[in-house]
Every structure is written in C-alpha cells, then in structure tokens.
Design a protein that fits this description.
Chain lengths: 413, 503
C-alpha cells in the first residue's frame, strides 16, 4: 500500500480547504496534500453560479466559480499537491488516514497535522419527517442546484420549495429564470432562514410567494410528485383545517445544513451539539492535538468570506503546530452559550493572544445588548442567519482564567 | 408490445421473494418457466418493505401469545398447539437460507433475538415460551436475568428485569435475496419478465392464456404468487373465494447500528410489534404500530406514524438512542393475510393446474421452503419434474468493494481504475459497482440504489444522484432525461436547461 508522509493533510478542497492550503504554504509548510472527493477544486462554489461572493474578502461581487478561481491558480503556482477524485475513508486519532483514488488505490496518509474541511450536507425529507409517499421529484435544493447549474437539467416544471435557507431562495430565483414556476417558498418560522438580501433579491424581486409560518404536511404522487399539502402553523403546531393542496411536480427542500463529521467521529473528535461541528479552541484545534477544523465542517457559515478566513486561520495554526510553536497555557476557559445565543465557536480558549469568537443567535433580535463576559456591544438588529464576530483581548480575558468560564448572551432592550 | 403469443409450461405470477424462490426451484428441472413481475425489478412489492427477518423458532411461538387473546385456552395449552403450515415451512426455510447463502452469494446474519421482560409476569411468560420451544425441539434458548441481559445488550433500558434469548434468529436484506433468486433462476433458463403486469387469464383448450401489458402468454401451469394482489389474480380464473387483507407497518431506518447487536423485541401486543432490528447493512430498523389499510397502492407514511410516539419506541428499549438525529429514512411495509386462513398460508389448487401460493406474514424466512412445497405440488399435479444435469446452483456476486482488504482493493483498482472512484460518500460505493449493477440489469435509480447502496446513506442521494444519473446514462447510451427513479412515470428530470439549447 502506498504511504504518504506529509506535514499537513487537508480533507476537502472547497473554500476552507483551499485557503488553508495556501496559508499553510505561505506560513512555511511545504509538504502538504489537499484531498478532494469531487472532480474539481472549489467544492460547492462550482454550482453556485449566482453572485454575492467575496463582498467582504475581496470587496468585489463575484460568482461562486469566480471566487474559487481566485484560489485555484495560486494553489498550483505554490506547488501544493492536489488529489482530486480522492475519497478519504478513515481517519484515526494518531493523525493517520486512509483514502482511495485511481492513481494510488487505497493508500495511507501519515500526517503531522490535519485540517478537517469537509463542508456540510443538506438535511433530507426524512430528517424532518415529512410523511407521505416516495415518488420521484423530491430533491434537496443543493442537489437541484447541481442538476440545473452543472449538469444542465431541470428536475421539474412546477416547484414548491420547503424551507427558506439561502440555497432554497437562490434556487427559487434560478428556476424562475429558467422558465419554471415556483408556486411558493414555505417556511415554518415567522421569518426566513437565510439572508435578508436573498429574501429581497430572490423572492420579492421575482414575485415568488413566501409562505411564512407554513409547512408541508404531506407529499402526494406515486410515480412522480403530484402535489403537496401545505398547512399553516402556530409556534410549530399545525393549525387545524388550515391545510390546502398545492399542485406541483417537484418539491425542493432547504431545511438546514449539517456539518459533515463522520471522519471526525471515527477519530474520536468531540462534537458540539449546537454547531454540529468539532469542539475547537481559538486555534481551531480539536481535542486531538494537530487536528484542526475549518469552514462549514466546523459550523455552517453565512458567507463564504468567513469560510475562507477560517481556512486561513487553520492553515496558519497547523503550520505553527508542525513547527512546534503553537503556544497554549496550562488552563482553559470554556465559552458557554447564555440567553438567546444558539452557538459559539471556538468553544474553549487556551492561549494568550487576542481571540475571535463566532456567535449565532437563536432568533432575529432588535435593539440588542450583546455581552461576552464584561465586553459589551450594541446592535440595532441581529439576524439568526448571520455569524457575529467578537474579538477579545488578553486583558479582557484575564478575569476568566480563574473561573474557567466565559458566557456570551444577548438581551433585547 | 409483442403480439406473438409467448408459450411456457409454467408461469409464475409475482416476482417477490416467494415467486423468485419458486422460479429458482423450478429452474432445477427440465421445465420451461417464466416469472412475471409488474414492476421494473423483482421484489418491489411486500418484499421490499419487509423487516428482513428470517425467524428462529421463538418468533413464531411468541407471536402466538397475541393470538391467544381471542381464545379460551390457557397460554400453555395454546402455545402447545401443533405447528401450522407457516410455522412448519418457517423452520425448514430458515435452515435452507443458511444452506443457500454460500451458493447464491447472499448474506444472512445470525444475530439472534432478544425478547425483553419488564416485570416478573412477562418473564414468566417468556419462561413458558421457552418450555414450549424445547418440547418442539428448539434448542439453545436461554432465559436471562438482568445481568445476562446487560451482557448481551449493554445499552438496554434498566427497567427490563430479564429476557429470553434465541440465538437462531437471522436477518437478511430482502432485495439482495430476491435479486439472487431471480438471477440464479435466469441463469438456469427461467424467462424473467419485468414490467409485465397480468391483466386477465383465459382458459383455452387445456391451457391458460395470460393477458399481460407486454402481450399474451400461453401457459400450461400457473403459480399465483402475486402477494398483495393474489386475490385479484385468483379471481381472474373465477376463484374469488378469499381476499387479501393487510396492515401498514411504518418503519424508521436509523443510521447507526452500534446501539444493539441482536433483534431486540418486547413481548408482542396486538398491533404493536415494538422491535429494533440490526440490519445486515449496518442500520437499525425501528418497527412499531400496525394499522389496517384498504388501498393496495397506498405506500404513504403518515403524520401519526412518524410522530413522537414512534420516536419513543426505540428510546423505550435503548434510552441513549436519538431517533431524530439518527433517522435517515422511513417507509411503509405491508403485512398481508388471507381471509380463508387468517393466520396461515393458503397453498392449494383451486383449479386444475393453477396453484395459489398465498402467503401471510411472515413469508420471508419460509420462502425457500414454500418454493419446494409448491414445486412438489406441481409435480403431483402432473408437471413432469426431471432434474437438469447442468443446473448451476451458484450465483456470482462480488463483495462490496469497500469491504475488501487493502490488497484486494488495490488489485481491483489496477484491473479497473473505476473501482478507485468512490461516487457515494456516505456508503462509499465505487463507480465500477454502479456500472456492474447496470450491466446486470438495473435500469432505474432505485434498482441501482438497492443493488449497490449508492444513495441509501445519511444524505439520501443528495450528492451521488447526479453522478449515478450520469453513469447510468453513459452505460445505457441514453439521455439522463429517460431515466426513472422506479417504475411508471417516475422520471427524475423534466427537461434540459435553456442554456444547453442555446446555439
């Protein structure tokens, strides 16, 4: 069996993995392997042909493939070893892994450090338990996006979209542009699940009906979807006699993303119930020394710009780890979610430098006081869809080393 | 549509596990036989939605406890009643499955069955079941105390005080076996006709003329193994002396089977099977409430069926399971019975050269024995059964690529690099396995899924569907637009995008 000894193995070559590879190289590592299961670099950016990427990172409005193209030539010019069509099948706590591709067959990777950048997957119909028959014509929004944008096929003519995640809203617009009819985007909550800009630009601008506080309660059709039953809900409970049938031949689901961490689990990496990703410190290092996590595998981000920054951070710290200069103290501070906070990463602080936390709130909030320990920030609105970043200086962290606990909380005035 | 009349000695109607097993049994003899199935693949009726259990003796006996509620007999004397046809064939069939597994290259896992008791009364009932089992020659049954239970199932709910352990219970993936029976029958000369639905039967000059959606077929003998539709087929020859009644059994598939290592079941209650089954493929099947149904075409799960109640069933047995997180699929299974013998099989000739092989639940485990019985009966009815000297009992099937050793994997990748391309990330299925499934007859995306497991994992095809469509279109030399999920009009794609149509 072929064995590859490397300083750094990066699993996944989406935006997080690509940024990690480039930054790690620039930070001094030269024996890196970047493993990607798909046939191209860029991950899901390749099927995201809409714009809105890079507004923060590049101060430009790019499409997904354009955004990926900012990194791909650089990866090659830096001479980073890229393995496409390569599936990592096992990951172990000693930082070894096995993978399969056509070139090397099943091969072993012995790495001094590893970055987990596997991205996320979509929640399915079964994951939310929609009852009914099992016809053709039920797709996750991301699969539909691939079929339309990469493969060039429309999976239906008349669509209902359940869930108003970003991919769902973007697909609503995309399908309408392709001449299909989107009969409604159905959202169980009283607000959309994705970014406000997508609600405006994808739904309102295209007169696509948005049914807030509604859900799909049944799917009809034996061979192909013939319709769905839609009901009004009140705080998650279906309102009796509010159900009606919408005829359609396709149901798309945009009902949440789940960080992909099957490999992490196998290696014994602790996962956070809230983010669905590994528990990490401010270096993005997991409970296993030398294994880092970045991007949507760590937590589902709102913007790709944040994914890139995550990748860079993981790449930089992996290089430090390999060089033996990643400094951590003997104590740690746990960061815990207080009122209105849904998730936080990193979940623990172990070093002595400035720390950046990424927070998500549970629901949209207005006139907010955000507290992280003693530090305080005011916001007019915070959306549950965005990632809020809060920086803390060593001085601000100092009072918390004693108790080992730092709470983040949000209060509406 | 063929207009020329096909001719055959024996037509088996219904390509479920029973029909396919009968077809294979017939293929041992110099008999011209065909198997008629209305779906695009074998086994897509009751078989597909079955629980995959090949029962040991205890399952049959303990299910008698439910039936006893309708009688005056005390439990012991009820349990001691003679075995019925189903139970007799069940004991034989189970042995046959183990004999057939290496021949057909199909998997059966003897995982054993654990019946748990919540109190002393339930434990006493289990002890009685054990006594009766032993008098019927079933051995190796153990009564376990709390400690014994924990040794076998460490995560079991602490409220259970003990249990009964039957090591003989087995599990199979039912579709693997239907495909195996069907392929082996075909290799030995049986004409397997899919998407061929029987619409009517006429008697003509000592023969049956079967009208199908793919033209007429003339047959000397007919075996009615039409499962859920067996009453309709029997009525086609004017024998409408029974009807099929059936229950829906909604099931959940959980991703991870590490929670249990045996079939774990509570004592059966009417309408509440309450059971966790570790599947051969590494999932847990949650089996719960049965509800009476009347529409044979309805395969819909219901809101009640997927409700919190359902999530409590697994937690009642294994408190640490989290069904909401681990659930990857849900589906409906049918449990069918006939009105003539509501608790037993109906295997008989209602008319000359026409045998009703009408099975009730459980029908999976007994199926090879049913096949033997039916073929023997055909012989008694006048069908000449001369053994073929060149019968090939073996069916070739490669192991799943991902389960091979590293050396074997690398040898295969050298031979054919498509093994090195893993296209399904959840179940780790290689491109070449998809190609082989297609070359062996899979035409639909579901058939490929059932044969290779591509799309059966936690993302339910979210990533691999696009790849599988491409590979299938390439291998069959067709447009992806012509590809279906299953039968009928279940096309996955509607049209090309306008960008592709642009000049």
């Amino acid at each position: 069996m072929v064995t590859k000894d490397v300083d750094l193995a990066i699993i996944g070559a989406g935006p997080a993995g690509m940024a990690a590879a480039i930054t790690a190289t620039e930070s001094g590592l030269d024996n890196i392997i970047l493993l990607e299961r798909a046939e191209d670099l860029g991950g899901l950016l390749n099927q995201c042909i809409h714009n809105g990427f890079g507004l923060h990172y590049f101060k430009e409005d790019l499409t997904g493939p354009e955004y990926a193209e900012r990194f791909i030539p650089k990866l090659y010019s830096l001479g980073i070893k890229v393995c496409l069509n390569t599936m990592v099948t096992h990951l172990y706590s000693d930082r070894s892994a096995t993978a399969i591709n056509k070139e090397w067959g099943e091969f072993k990777i012995l790495a001094k450090s590893i970055i987990l950048a596997m991205g996320c997957r979509e929640r399915t119909r079964h994951g939310i338990g929609i009852p009914g028959s099992r016809p053709a014509g039920i797709f996750t929004a991301g699969l539909a996006q691939r079929l339309v944008n990469v493969d060039g096929y429309l999976p239906g003519k008349e669509f209902v979209i359940l869930g108003s995640g970003d991919i769902g809203m973007i697909m609503a617009r995309r399908l309408q542009l392709e001449g299909a009819t989107v009969k409604g985007v159905v959202e169980i909550m009283p607000y959309v699940g994705g970014l406000i800009r997508n609600e405006v630009q994808c739904l309102h601008d295209f007169n696509i009906p948005l049914l807030l506080e509604h859900t799909v309660t049944e799917i009809y059709g034996n061979d192909r979807v013939e319709g769905v039953k839609v009901a009004q809900v009140d705080k998650g409970d279906i309102i009796p006699n509010s159900e009606r049938i919408i005829d359609c031949d396709c149901l798309l689901l945009s009902v949440g993303l789940i960080p992909e961490n099957e490999l992490s689990k196998e290696a014994g990496i602790f996962l956070d119930e809230q983010t669905g990703g590994p528990v990490v410190d401010e270096f993005l290092q997991t409970n296993i020394d030398g294994i880092f996590a970045a991007g949507n595998a760590l937590q589902v981000y709102d913007l790709v710009d944040n994914v890139t920054l995550d990748g860079e951070k993981a790449g930089r710290n992996a290089a430090k780890y390999v060089a033996g200069v990643l400094k951590r103290g003997p104590k740690e501070i746990s960061v815990v979610c207080g009122e209105n906070i849904k998730s936080v990463a990193p979940q623990k602080i172990v070093g002595f430098d400035k720390v950046e936390l990424a927070l998500r709130v549970q629901r949209p909030l207005e006139n907010v006081d955000l507290f992280v320990g003693n530090s305080h920030k005011r916001y007019r609105v915070i959306s549950h869809t965005e990632v809020i970043k809060v920086s803390l200086t060593p001085l601000e962290l100092k009072p918390y080393w004693e108790s080992g606990k730092l709470e983040a909380s949000c209060h509406e005035r | 549509m063929g207009t020329k009349v096909k001719e055959t000695q024996v037509a088996v109607i219904g390509g479920g596990i029973v029909g396919a097993a009968i077809a294979r049994e017939l293929s041992k003899y110099k008999v011209d036989a065909c198997l008629l199935e209305k779906e695009p693949s074998l086994g897509w009726g009751i078989t597909k939605g079955s629980q995959g259990l090949v029962h040991g003796g205890i399952a049959y006996l303990s299910s008698r406890i439910v039936k006893r509620l309708d009688t005056e007999l005390d439990l012991k004397s009820f349990l001691m009643q003679e075995l019925n046809v189903k139970e007799r064939l069940g004991f034989v069939g189970r042995e046959m499955f183990f004999e057939l597994a290496p021949l057909l290259n199909a998997k059966i896992v003897q995982c054993g069955r654990m019946m748990v008791a919540e109190n002393q009364e339930e434990l006493d009932t289990l002890k009685m079941v054990k006594e009766v089992a032993e008098e019927n020659g079933i051995e190796d049954i153990e009564i376990l105390d709390r400690q014994g239970l924990e040794e076998k199932e460490p995560l079991i709910n602490p409220k259970f005080v003990g249990g009964l352990y039957d090591p003989s219970e087995g599990t199979i993936f039912p579709l693997e076996w239907v495909i195996a029976f069907g392929e082996n029958a075909k290799d030995n000369g049986v004409n397997v006709l899919t998407e061929t639905e029987v619409r009517g039967i006429e008697e003509k000059r000592g023969c049956y003329l079967i009208k199908t959606t793919d033209g007429p077929i003339k047959a000397e003998y007919i075996v009615n193994a039409a499962g859920l539709f067996a009453d309709d087929v029997s009525a086609m020859i004017g024998r409408d002396y029974f009807s099929i009644f059936f229950y829906h059994c909604q099931m959940l598939v959980l991703e991870n089977k590490d929670y249990i290592s045996h079939v774990v079941a509570r004592l059966p209650q009417p309408g509440h099977p309450r059971m966790l089954i570790p599947t051969t493929e590494g999932n847990i099947l949650v089996v719960h409430t049965m509800t009476r149904e009347t529409n044979k075409h309805n395969l819909s799960t219901t809101r009640d069926g997927l409700s919190d109640y359902l999530h409590n069933i697994p937690k009642d047995l294994i408190p640490t399971i989290s069904p909401r997180k681990d659930m990857i699929s849900s589906f409906v299974g049918f449990l069918a019975f006939n009105t003539r013998f509501p608790e037993d099989y109906l295997i008989e000739f209602p008319k000359k050269r026409f045998v009703n092989a009408v099975i009730c639940a459980p029908g999976l485990g007994p199926s090879p024995a049913i096949a033997q019985e039916v073929v023997r009966m055909l012989g008694d009815e006048g069908l000449e059964l001369v053994e073929k000297s060149d019968f090939n009992p073996y069916r070739f099937q490669e192991s799943r690529f991902i389960d091979l050793s590293s050396d074997e994997k690398n040898r295969k990748i050298l031979e054919n690099p498509r093994y090195g391309h893993i296209i399904c990330r959840c179940e780790k299925v290689s491109e070449q396995e998809v190609v082989m499934a297609i070359r062996r007859g899979a035409k639909t995306i579901d058939d490929i899924k059932f044969r290779t497991r591509a799309g059966m994992g936690r993302c339910q095809g979210g990533f691999c569907t696009s790849r599988v469509l491409q590979i299938t279109a390439r291998e069959l030399g067709v447009s992806p637009l012509t590809l279906r999920k299953k039968g009928g009009n279940s096309y996955l794609l509607r049209s090309e995008t306008k960008t592709l149509n642009a000049p």
